[in-house]
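2024-03-11 09:14:02 DEBUG pipeline.ingest accepted 1 chain
2024-03-11 09:14:02 DEBUG pipeline.ingest length=104
2024-03-11 09:14:03 DEBUG pipeline.predict start
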Amino acid sequence: MQRRAGRNGIDAIVPIVNLYAILKLAGMRGWWLIAYLFPVTNVIAAILVARGLGRRFDRDALFTIVFLFALQPIGFLILGFGSARFTPDSPPLAARDIRSRELA
């Protein structure tokens, strides 16, 4: 998945570096890594990271919840070896909502 996004594949081996790289792929800042240290915020952070990855790889909400949050290893394999394309210039979800309301 990281090679598909143009990053170094060695980042996937070291656990903390892997999590940091996934945060960057999801379009989030590095300080979210601290959120994984606390019991309730780690679940919230995992949901937000799954949403960001789904958005960056142009996947729908069902794929995001099922495969990127609940069944994360399977979802990463699908993104890494499937036909998914990484779009780094994808706007944030809030910007998509505002733009769709302006067009209506």
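2024-03-11 09:14:41 DEBUG pipeline.report The two ends are 35 Å apart (CA to CA).
2024-03-11 09:14:41 DEBUG pipeline.predict end
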